[in-house]
Amino acid sequence: VQLQASGGGSVQAGGSLRLSCASTASSGAVAWFRQAPGKEREFVAAISWSGGSTNYVDSAKSRFTISRDNAKKAAYLEMNSLKPEDTAVYYCAANAKKIYITPYYRESEYDYWGQGTLVTVSS
After folding, report:
1. Least crowded by CB within 10 Å, which of 8, 79, 90, 101?
2. How far apart are CA 28 and CA 8, in angstroms?
3. Residue 72's CB: how many other CB atoms inside 10 A?
4. Is the Cα torsion angle 82, 87, 89, 93 positive or negative in sign?
5. In a structure prediction context, what are the per-residue pLDDT tens digits for the chain, which is 123 residues long?
6. For residue 113, what are the contacts with CB-CB under 8 A and spacing of at least 6?
7. Residue 64: its pLDDT value, please?
8. Which of 84, 60, 37 is closest to 46 using CA atoms?
9. 19 CB contacts (<8 Å, ≥6 apart)?
10. What value, to the nearest 5°, has the Cα angle with vertex 58 and ends 57 and 62?
11. How far apart are CA 44 and CA 105, in angstroms?
12. What are phi and psi of 29, to 5 degrees?
């Protein structure tokens, strides 16, 4: 399984971006992580296979929305009200079979990773 993340770019604070994660095959739970310059990679959001369960890092709640379209083998991260501190390389990750991941923020639970897409938010 290969994941392809896209949709990153440069926006001003308050702007929006929609990231996409295209997969070459069906997968279980999907998550987005990000790594800011000089920092460790951190969890951003996760979604179960059915889409019925979603989880977010506190800083993303009410601003970001994770979704998926299993028919298209794709997942998305809608990001609104972007802040300079959201600047990072965003990675999508997927578990091969598990429809729900717990703990959803644990990187080792995800079998496949995309190459990352850069999001830059200027003030």
Report:
1. 8
2. 24
3. 11
4. negative
5. 899 999 999 999 999 999 999 999 999 999 999 999 999 999 999 999 999 999 999 999 999 999 999 999 999 999 999 999 999 999 999 998 888 888 899 999 999 999 999 999 999
6. 3, 91, 92, 93
7. 98
8. 60
9. 5, 6, 7, 8, 32, 76, 77, 79, 90, 92, 117, 119
10. 100
11. 8
12. -60, 150
Name residue 75's amino acid. Answer: A
Q: Bridge-partner residues for 34, per DSSP?
A: 42, 90
- Phi, psi of 39, rounded to the nearest 5 degrees: -125, 165
